[in-house]
Amino acid sequence: MFSQRITLQALMKSGSFIPSPLLAPLSVGLLQALILSPVFCAGAGSAPEPAPAAVLNQARVKMQVIQIESSVNGPYKILVNKDHLRIDSSSFGLTIYAASPDWQVTAVRPNQKELATASYAQWQKTVVPSFTMAGICKELGTPTSSKKGADGITRNVFMHKGNSLSFFQTREERTEIKSVEIDSQPVDTSPQALAIINHFLNLPNLPGVPVAINVFYANGTKAWQIKRVSTTTLELKKSEVLPPKAAFRNVGLISRQFLARTVMNTLDDVSDLLSEPK
Question: Which of 25, 26, 179, 220 has the fewest Cβ atoms within 10 Å of its own Cβ atom?
Fold first, then answer.
């Protein structure tokens, strides 16, 4: 740009460049303005410079945040919108990430600085361990009935007959189940995101995020498995809903063993406790 300005000035002083008499009063200022303009210097077809990665990471996204409590698996924090999903499970020591358009799943263990990945199809076939996976949740199938309430929550009723199975029950304490009710809250996201959430919770594919599970027994009693703690909306940095990469070791495909590590440690601790002499 500086050399172009010098060249113009030299031409005008030498007389090689002679503007029209009618435009003479405007020629010098006009041409200098053109030379200094971004269009003249860079060219009309030039693409804008890409934004730095640091700027992209500070972009903001609005997320719906649903916190639920499991009676045996502890708290879950689910952050979701149309394009992003993050699930925090302190009991498992895991954070699950996924995003459109392919909804590839990344499972992260922050304390161990490890991560593993799976395609959406692979994730849906992965066995997710939990204290309730041997129980009724995966056996429910299709709801017998579904009814949407005034608050938008859908109550899914499963008329299920069988014995309750739970880590905390002995064989003698298992009780005949009459039915199971699962309340699902609608969220503005894709069916794939909902399927990822429900699979992680070992539940059938529901039209929303599960916020309540109640089990009804033949003897007239009931027990809760999941209850809602809170629902809110937060604006977060985009980097907070994307999986970390720096300083994390990628161990490959998500496996049952990778997901189960904390659960297995808990089972070992309980086993040790039960075997201690009194």
Answer: 220
Q: The whole model's pTM is what?
A: 0.73
Average pLDDT of the segment spanning 91-118: 96
- Report the half-sphere exposure of 262 (CA within 13 A, side-chain side): 17
Q: What is the DSSP letter of 85?
A: E
Look up residue 244 and give its two tokens. Answer: 């970390």
Closest to 244 in 3D by CA, of 86, 118, 81, 20: 86
* CA separation for the pair 249, 226 (Å, rounded): 33
- Contact by Cβ (8 Å): 124, 195: yes
Provide the mean pLDDT of the chain: 78
Q: Give the helix/strand (H/E) hosting 257.
A: helix 256-275
Please state, in angstroms and rounded to a whole number, the distance separating the CA atoms of residues 96 and 85: 8
Q: How many residues does the chain have?
A: 278
**Residue 39 pLDDT > 50:** no
Q: How many CA atoms lie within 13 A of 104 on its CB side?
A: 10
CA distance 62 to 64: 7
- What's the pLDDT band for 50 if we cut at 50, 70, 90? low
CATH of domain 55-258: 2.50.20
Q: What is the DSSP letter of 266?
A: H
Q: What is the gyration radius of the CA atoms in the chain, in angstroms?
A: 30
Where do the CATH 2.50.20 domains begin and end in the chain?
55-258
Reduced DSSP (H G I as helix, E B as strand, rest coil) percent helix, strand, coil of the chain, to 5: 30, 35, 35
Q: Name the pairing type of β-strands 84-89 and 209-217.
A: unpaired
How many other C-beta atoms can be found within 10 angstroms of the C-beta atom of residue 152?
11
Mean pLDDT, to the nearest integer, of 54-70? 86
Tokens 């992260």 appear where?
108
